[in-house]
Amino acid sequence: MGEYLVRCLGCGRIHPPHALACENDDSLLRTEYASKRLALRGDLSGLWKFYDWLPVKEPLRGSGEKPVTYKSEGLARALDLEELYISFSGYWPERGAKMTTCSFKDLEAPPTVERMMEAEDARVLVVASAGNTARAFAQAASAVDLPLVLVVPASGIHRLWIDGDLPESVLVISVKGDYTEAIDLASRLEAHPRFVGEGGARNVARRDGMGVVVLDAALSMKSLPEHYFQAIGSGTGGISAWEASHRLLGDGRFGRRLPRLHLAQNSPCAPVYAAWTGSMLEAGRCPGGMYDDVLYNRKPPYAVKGGVREALEETGGEVYGITNQEAREAQKIFEESEDIDILPAAAVAVAALLRAARSGAVAKRDLTLLNITGGGISRAKEELKMNYLKCDIEVSPSAFRSESTSTSYSDLLAEIDEILGRRG
Ligand SMILES: *Cc1c(COP(=O)(O)O)cnc(C)c1O
Q: Is 233 in the pocket of ligand 1 (CB under 6 A)?
């Protein structure tokens, strides 16, 4: 059970289970599970039911909810679609959705944190995030007291709440700059032997965790969908959906065709859209002005072997550039027809579906899966006791550019050590 190999998609070599990169080329690594048939683990809950296809030895204590898949009535009627299913990652207790951090980053963080624990890696995990990822990692790490350094742009601090007590093991660095500058500082920390990055799209635990969306949906739909809609920044979720679909083809009970990926970006901050359509990227002031800046990613894993381009090519996929106006309209239609609030990022996916339904790219009877990647925050805030994480260290990005040898960087390291040490 849970047996797997990690193979490089470029050179084909088998790698140690915790490898994030191949030493020969820059291709993604992928897991190959011994079990080829999807069997649910009835003794485990949430995400961990898919244990056989997750790269972990054990479930992580105290976290790991799964998305719920249901057949849409309201939105389906509004779009005149008959076979529309929704995968909902978020908080919606009436439907059984209990992710208290309210986004599908809750599928990535628990397996990643569990693997950190299993590897008995003494290094401190560093995560850079504009918000949803940070929240999910804070929740997962705090459940098991794993030391974690979150590097967040100042504008994202308000998104850092968790359900429950404020975690002692989590240290928050606020960067007075944008997400890109937060990533730069995190990369600099990751290069230090005391820290380790989570690897983003390169981490098989993140991808296989997100793959649960398609696994759960296929069980509900009794088939792979013909179309898969998702809002993307990096596109890691799209890669995950494609990989999970391949596994389901291998199972044999869920159809013989890969779903078409319909990936939605928020224009003009849409590098995957630009690369796919060959259009100009006008990302000058990005992520400023975005409908949801969690969808901004400067360096998506697009052209690498096993990356977004290959997933799109193999599935006959499409990328959409969605304007704020379209996203706003779609959010309204969704929330009125399905009766739950969604994150703005998810509305970008709804807008893509709206376009595809109107143009006929998705026909009335096509089996379609819409991934609502986050929602139910209003619902969660009514019911749960939310605690907001506080900023522990505030830094200005100019002091930490890679060429800088200023003492402020060593001061920062000392301060991190001091705080983590004090908290034990
Ligand atoms: C991160 C995120 C996305 C985009 O995910 P990818 O990694 O680009 O697939 C979409 N919606 C929400 C709510 C997110 O947090």
A: yes
Q: What would the DSSP string read from start to end of 102-142?
A: -BGGGGTHHHHHHHHHHHT--SEEEEE-SSHHHHHHHHHHH
CB atoms closer than 10 angstroms to residue 152: 27
Mutate to test the pocket of ligand 1, among 343, 373, 377 (most ligand atoms within 8 A of CB): 373
Question: How do residues 154-199 score in pLDDT, each as one tens digit?
Answer: 988 989 998 888 888 999 999 998 888 888 899 999 989 999 999 9
As given in the structure block, the two tokens for residue 363 are 């026909």
Which of helix, strand or coil describes residue 317?
coil
Is residue 13 in a domain? no
Structure token pair of residue 228: 């898969």
Task: Report whether residue 211 contacts ligand 1, using a CB cutoff of 6 Å.
Answer: no
What total of structural domains would you count in the chain?
2
**Structural domain of residue 161, as residue ranges?**
105-202+387-423
Could you read off the pLDDT of 56-91 as tens digits, one per residue? 999 998 889 999 999 999 999 999 999 999 999 999
Compute, in angstroms, the gap from residue 237 CA to the centroid of ligand 1: 7
Terminal Cα distance for the chain, rounded: 35
- For residue 238, the CA-to-ligand 1 centroid distance in Å is 9
User: Based on the domain organization, do 89 and 122 belong to the same domain?
Assistant: no
| Shared domain check, 138 and 114 | yes
Question: Which ligand 1 atom is at minimum distance from the Cα of 105?
Answer: 15
